[in-house]
Amino acid sequence: MKDKMLKRALLRVAVVLLIAFGAGWHYGWVRPATWFNQQQVNTIVTQQCDDLVAGCRFKLENHEYLLKSKAPLSTKAPVELVLSGKADEVHAEWAMSGMDMGSNRYALRRNDAQQWLASTILPICSQKRLDWQLTLDIDRNRVVLLTRSQQ
């Protein structure tokens, strides 16, 4: 009788753990693909960029890039990013200094040979801060742009 109860309890625990893992994978909290292959970053550039609508220029490995937002940054509407420059793969992620904003990594899609697009959303900040870090992973290089949003 005790063996049967123990087996049922273990089965319930296994089911709960499996559901939690599945939810974590679905919502991006668990990323098994990155557990064993940490990417080596070649270059890290940090740059102040107060107005993404006007654009932000930077240089990586002798290539020029221009990042623009189609509208001022706001937590009330999606942030449409347009990156011009040579790349094979581009990802973007919004964060704040000293805050855990959860996973919000976006893959930019290629529009043409030299242009990348993404519709992103700023995470909600309960402290009403307006300072943001946009991290761009361009191939094996990382660019951190420091910017601000409107209220």
From TrEMBL:
UniProt KW keywords: Membrane, Transmembrane, Transmembrane helix
UniProt entry tagged with the keyword Transmembrane: yes
Residue intervals passing through the bilayer: 9-29
Name listed for the protein in its UniProt record: Uncharacterized protein
